[in-house]
Specification:
289 residues; single chain; 3-stranded mixed sheet; alpha/beta; 7-stranded mixed sheet; globular
């Protein structure tokens, strides 16, 4: 960690960051769904999108809601204003006898507490989640970005696993996410020093998928490549890699067989074959799972 209701609308696909909000009564998180893609934005620009208690709850609830939508094909996660996310709002930590304690207690049925689930819930969504990072991406912000499947960043964005500045460790699912992306010595260095690195360096280290002067356009290009494929196979690819990344070969081979057996005779697989030969457009049915 480092350092308010959501709206769901359907409209034209956004191609640029939302206009900075933050007006009294404005939602701390917005979610617009267009062409089966959810565009989610942290909306506390006056606080550089620092995660308040309300925003933590909205992140969790929105991710859980999107996870149930079988027509959804992808999610783009970004921040309004001048930053992706500056980390946890320090007022959350100051409330040591109130919401912080309640939020810190784990939910046994998920294995996470509020702070962890606000980030890791985005990894639980069955479709690809793409984080678009600009400005600052500190502490809780980097944990949120790392919970996405892909991260596009501006070269001059600032990234930091900043918890050590406050005498803490990278929580909010950060340790697990870091272990999937970078070597252990780099993870230890970033966690122990809290050093700030550029988006360019984050991409070199593997924290970011790629750097781009316009990361929204880069995210859109990846979306275009994914959306022509069967949503069943895309979801299965996400599921199998997430579930077996640190597993042994035998377990992975078994999961490969199980996923492939379901896909071989699926309706969307038949559509994908026609798309591949130019005999049909990529108009797929909702995912079965």
């Amino acid at each position: 960690m480092s350092a308010e209701t959501s709206s769901v609308e359907t409209g034209r696909t956004p191609t640029v960051p939302a206009t900075p909000g933050g007006a009294p009564g404005a939602p701390v998180l917005t979610c617009e769904i267009a062409d089966r893609v959810a565009y989610v934005r942290l909306n506390r620009p006056d606080k550089r999108n620092a995660l308040s208690t309300e925003l933590l709850h909205e992140l969790q609830h929105t991710a859980h809601r999107l996870a149930k939508d079988r027509t959804l094909r992808a999610v783009v996660l970004a921040g309004t204003g001048k930053a992706f996310c500056a980390g946890i709002d320090l007022s959350v930590l100051a409330d040591a006898k109130g919401s912080f304690v309640k939020g810190f207690l784990p939910r046994p049925w998920r294995g996470t507490n509020l702070f962890q689930e606000a980030c890791w819930a985005w990894r639980r969504i069955p479709v690809p989640v793409i984080a678009v990072v600009h400005g600052t991406c500190f502490g809780a912000g980097i944990q949120l970005a790392l919970a996405a499947d892909f991260r596009f960043t501006t070269p001059d964005a600032q990234w930091s696993v900043m918890e050590s500045k406050w005498g803490l460790v990278p929580d909010m699912s950060g340790v697990h996410a870091l272990s999937q992306l970078i070597p252990i010595d780099i993870a230890k260095r970033l966690s122990m020093t809290g050093e700030i690195i550029s988006g360019e360096r984050a991409a070199q280290l593997g924290l970011a998928t790629a750097e781009a002067s316009d990361p929204h356009t880069a995210a859109g290009e990846l979306l275009d490549a994914i959306l022509v494929r069967s949503p069943d196979s895309v979801a299965a690819s996400k599921r199998i890699f997430d579930d077996t990344w640190h597993a042994g070969a035998r377990r992975t081979f078994a999961r490969e067989r199980a996923e492939q057996a379901r896909l071989l005779f699926a309706r969307n697989t038949a559509i994908a074959r026609k798309v591949a030969t130019g005999a049909a457009k990529p108009d797929y049915a909702p995912r079965p799972r």
